Amino acid sequence: MTELDIGMPGLKDRIAAELAAVRERSLVYTDADDEVLTRQHSPLMSPLVWDLAHVGNYEELWVLREAGGIEPLRPEIDHLYDAFRYPRADRPTLPLLAPAEARRYISGVRGRVLDVLDRLDPADPDPLRAGGFVFGLVLQHEHQHDETMLATLQLSRRPGLVRDGELPPGAPATDPEVHIPAGIFSMGTDTVAWAYDNERPAHRRHLPGYWIDRHPVTCGAYLRFVEDGGYRDPRWWLPQGWEWVERSGVDAPLFWTRDGDTWWRLRFGREEPVPPDEPVQHVSWYEADAYARWAGKRLPTEAEWEKACGGREYPWGDAGPGDLGDRANLGHRAARPAPVGAYPAGASPYGVEQLVGDVWEWTDSWFQPYPGFRSFPYKEYSEVFFGETYRVLRGGSWATHPSAVRTTFRNWDLPIRRQIFAGFRCARSED
Ligand SMILES: [Fe+2]
Questions:
Q1: What string of pLDDT tens digits covers the 431 residues of the chain?
Q2: How far is the CA of 222 from the centre of ligand 1 (A)?
Q3: Are residues 368 and 412 both part of a single domain?
Q4: Of 386, 168, 407, 377, nearest to 302 (Cα)?
């Protein structure tokens, strides 16, 4: 949503509709037996019931208390749902709200949130309330937790918990690389109303010319790296990456197994042959980086990734995510990435495809602040993660809601993480 929308009639209606939609999504993902919701499926993840109550607690904290000036509803549970208080691995041992109680709590919060929305003056100069920023904050936060819940459901290896759907067919790429000419471009944003602090401020960057893959790297291409002994050859790996390979014993993307000559993958509890034309997912940053070196290329920097989008809110234009149409695989249309070439209408002005949707794309960049960065509304959103620990991912996955991604959106994770819906594309400098 751009600045032009602020204060326009319909803002409150749009927020109310989006709040209802994201809650419906959260309730679908947690429409399971208490046993599924309360157990820990992986030490990397919280129990699903934690995510559910946490989104309500976050909404209470930011919309009701900070923006609405309302007294805490359940102050005694705050510490349980503070993401910085207890590591994920310890959360199952906490006295968490049971599923039915968690549903009651978040619905009680939501009722009051709608009252605060009703009183919202979009022209209010308070930065938390201006343009409904705080509602954008909680909407995106809940969608991000919904994506996390999908990753948890995938890790549970149980069938029947996640909806699948149809996707458009792919098409072979005639020209697998796109040339981006040297020059200055504007990175980040000052105008996207619900952008996070780490996307701000917009600033000018000069990049030399480079080549970038038209599509994300496919499973078929990645398989050639696997079969060429890529996981047994330290030449392709950074020292820390090689150490990780040796320590963890990985020899293929997460959820892949070999049976004779056939490779299978486990997807939401079902085994299926690895689809050669689909972007590879569930690879770590180290694997992406090693593949790129094996292919004679490198990962793009996040500036190269963003420039390839062509300077608009979405690669296909500034039009909002409401008219997604056939432009991208976002918002859990199906529970997998679409084959490459499936979205020519979503190409950037340079002709780079599937930048947004399908798989989060690892970039070569550390998660660092832009020049002039100011923390808002709290340091723990971005600032505490800056440094040389986390690598930036861009573009969102099939599981990302269109309201929770744009060409300036920055995600970050540890270089060993593979449970997220992440893949990559390659780049190379001009000769
Ligand atoms: Fe959170």
A1: 444 444 456 899 999 999 999 999 999 999 999 999 999 999 999 999 999 999 999 999 999 999 999 999 999 999 999 988 988 888 888 999 999 999 999 999 999 999 999 999 988 999 999 999 999 999 999 999 999 999 999 999 999 999 999 999 999 878 999 999 999 999 999 999 899 999 999 999 999 999 999 999 999 999 999 999 999 999 999 999 999 999 999 999 999 999 999 999 999 999 999 999 999 999 999 999 999 999 999 999 999 999 999 999 999 998 766 668 799 999 999 999 999 999 999 999 999 999 999 999 999 999 999 999 999 998 989 999 999 999 999 999 999 999 999 999 999 999 999 999 999 999 999 97
A2: 33
A3: yes
A4: 407
Q: Please, are residues 187 and 205 in contact by the beta-carbon 8 Å criterion?
A: yes
For residues 193 and 140, state if they share a domain.
no
- 323 and 397 part of one domain: yes
Cα–Cα distance measured from residue 415 to residue 250, given in angstroms and rounded to the nearest whole number? 14
| Cα 154 to ligand 1 centre (Å) | 19
Residues 319 and 202 in one domain: yes
Separation of 56 CA from ligand 1 center, angstroms?
10
Say if CB 143 and CB 400 are below 8 A apart. Answer: yes
**Among candidates 337, 249, 252, 239, which has minimal Cα distance to 287?**
252
Q: Separation of 23 CA from ligand 1 center, angstroms? A: 15
User: From the CA of 143, how far away is ligand 1's center (Å)?
Assistant: 10
230 and 337 share one domain: yes
Q: Cα of 48 to ligand 1 centre, how many Å? A: 12
* Domain of 124, in residue numbers: 3-156
CA 46 to ligand 1 centroid distance, Å:
11
* 207 shares its domain with 249: yes
